[in-house]
Amino acid sequence: MKNIYSKDFTLGILGGGQLGRMFIQEAVNYDVRVHVLDPAADAPCAAIANKFSVGSFADYDTVYNFGKDKDVLTIEIEHVNVEALKALEKEGVRVFPQPHVLEIIKDKGLQKSFYRDHQIPTAPFKLVETKAEAIAELKNGPWMQKMRQGGYDGKGVTPLRNESDTERVFDFPSVLEEMVDFSKEISVIVARNSKGEIKSFPVVEMEFNAEANLVEFLFSPAEISKEIEASAQAIARDVADKLQIVGILAVEMFVTKDQQVLVNEVAPRPHNSGHQTIEGNITSQYEQHLRAICGLPLGNTDITLPSVMVNLLGEKGYSGPVKYQGIEEVMAHRGVYIHLYGKTETKPFRKMGHCTVVDENIKIAKERARAILKTLKVVS
User: Tens of pLDDT along 264-282?
Assistant: First the structure.
């Protein structure tokens, strides 16, 4: 088994988006050569990967042929060909997260059933196969309907509040989840390496763009009680341990009005709710993922400074070659770090970058982040 520091050690990533791009930026510090597979020739990773291949990560032969000469293979998106990963794993390629973990997580029905079977707190749910089955359950709502496979960034999710919502119902195998009366949405990034070592980052709080159902702001640390922090940390570590995952796991949770903590969803990769760790924590989520999948000791996750992350989304009404308005004005502020993802085309609500604001005072950081949202515009 090659050492990560060997000159012929090669790490492969399925997916070439912004998560892979930020991962590569950390891997460079360890002189790790990273090869990337993505269907888009102009994907964010294309310009900075040691080798970039164009191809579908959903196609068995493409994934198998890409992965067969890699020492470690990882992902930045769940929707990859798991059967090819199973074959590679059998042949000795270190595939992290493991195919059995991906198989559970990429199907929200299997994911929810896993929580139920392993006594992990989550909202009550029902599984339906067709639109007709979902409509028959409207009287028992309200529900959040989630497509079992293929959804991401708020897509594939719709609220079903009453029996008149028949037009909103998806005609796909889905999870009907009881709507949770929550006060906050929080997240914990947890990492587990092949030796079973587990470390988690402090809880962060998420604030969503209501129209796009995407994270708009992220606050670190979260404004929660010590009891909620401890409960969320314990749940996140329990999920990682019971999955036996190797790598990073983002565990998104609800804090209910009566102060219960319930798992919403998990993502077996670096995640939007961990971007602020690049500047706000001793170890970033990207370095932590690298350490975990390469069998290295996990890094310290302590907060260095309170931080706020603001997603830079494409403005409504703009599609085409990207332009950034107000970027120099934002750069002039203290404690502001800009990350542009290298996407050449913008469209409404597309994630084009993010800014992190750090300050000794979280209130000041929040004010600065809200000003950035009003100033820095992604247009065409």
Answer: 999 999 999 999 999 999 9
Domains and their CATH numbers in the chain: 10-95 (3.40.50.20), 124-178 (3.30.1490.20), 182-379 (3.30.470.20)
What DSSP state is assigned to residue 67? H
154 falls in which pLDDT band (50, 70, 90)? low
The pLDDT value recorded for residue 214 is 85
Q: Are 261 and 235 in contact (CB under 8 A)?
A: yes
Return the bridge partners of 313, or none. 351
Handedness of CA 30, 31, 32, 34 (dihedral sign): positive
> Does the reported pTM lie above 0.85?
yes
Of the candidates 123, 83, 118, which has an alpha carbon nearest to the alpha carbon of residue 103?
83
CA distance 177 to 170: 14
Compute the distance between CA of residue 234 and CA of residue 229 in angstroms, rounded to an integer. 9
Strand partners, 166: none
Sequence-distant (6+) residues with CB within 8 A of 291 are 191, 193, 283, 297, 298, 299
Calpha distance 86→304 (Å, rounded):
39
3-state secondary structure of 257: coil
First and final C-alpha spacing in the chain: 48
Could you report the per-residue pLDDT of 339-362, keeping only the tens digit for each? 999 999 999 999 999 999 999 999
Cα gap 138→155, rounded to integer Å:
20
Give the closest residue to 51 by CA, choosing from 69, 26, 33, 31: 33
Neighbours of 142 (CB within 10 A): 13
Per DSSP bridges, beta strands 143-147 and 157-160 are antiparallel
Residues in CB range of 302: below 8 A, 6 or more apart = 202, 281, 282
